[in-house]
Amino acid sequence: MTRREREVTDLAMILDFLNKGKVIHLGLCDGDQPYVVPMNYGYTMKDGELTFYLHGALKGYKYDVMRKHPKVSFSIECDVHPFPGKVACQYGTSYSSVMGKGTARVLENPQEKMEALSLFMRTQTGKDFEFNEKLVSIVNVIEIKVSEYSAKQRPMP
Ligand SMILES: Cc1cc2nc3c(=O)[nH]c(=O)nc-3n(C[C@H](O)[C@H](O)[C@H](O)COP(=O)(O)OP(=O)(O)OC[C@H]3O[C@@H](n4cnc5c(N)ncnc54)[C@H](O)[C@@H]3O)c2cc1C
């Protein structure tokens, strides 16, 4: 990582970024053509293992791509605040961000989909919601098991 002094390794800070981010920029590979799609997410962090849960309509280009090539990259940011300077190169943007790589799969098991959507709603709203088989049958749910990630923060000057 360039600007290594901005790297964040404190788990509590990383969880704070993940709670605030709300939107994941999911990078997929369609052959030699990258495809980036913004989506909302839920997550769990268990024993250092980060997993994301996304949901959407039953059809779409992103599923076609990830079924062919399940390796993904992602980027999440929060605390984004542009700041001014006296000269052009002093202008900048403060941010907190998490980036990484992982493997995606579309969940088929209704029980897994219900649990994933509860986690999704917890991350997005801070509230607990319950789902039933009928509700989860009308959406696709994506699980992303993260193989590596890093976090970085640029504070306000
Ligand atoms: C902040 C944010 C949060 C979102 N959260 C979710 C979510 O949680 N779940 C979800 O399913 N979708 C979400 N969306 C919409 C998402 O970005 C996609 O539009 C949607 O998932 C369809 O993607 P697809 O690959 O299936 O595209 P398709 O509907 O199959 O369409 C393919 C083509 O449409 C165009 N396209 C698709 N999406 C976009 C876009 N966002 N902007 C411009 N052009 C586009 C591209 O040219 C793409 O190649 C969110 C969008 C934003 C901006």
Notable characteristics:
binds flavin-adenine dinucleotide, Pnp Oxidase, Chain A, alpha+beta, 157 residues, 4 helices
Structure overview:
The chain has 157 residues and is α+β, with helices and mostly antiparallel strands. It has one domain (4-154): Electron Transport, Fmn-binding Protein, Chain A (Pnp Oxidase, Chain A). It has 4 helices and 8 strands. It has helices spanning 11-21, 61-68, 110-125, 133-137, and strands at 7-8, 23-30, 33-40, 42-46, 49-56, 71-83, 92-106, 140-154. Strands 1, 2, 3, 4, 5, 6, 7 and 8 form an 8-stranded antiparallel β-sheet that branches. The longest helix has 16 residues, at 110-125. It is globular and about 55 Å long. It starts with 6 loop residues before the first strand and ends with a strand. 20% of the residues are buried. The mean pLDDT is 96. The structure holds flavin-adenine dinucleotide (FAD). The site of flavin-adenine dinucleotide has 12 residues, from β3, β5 and α2.
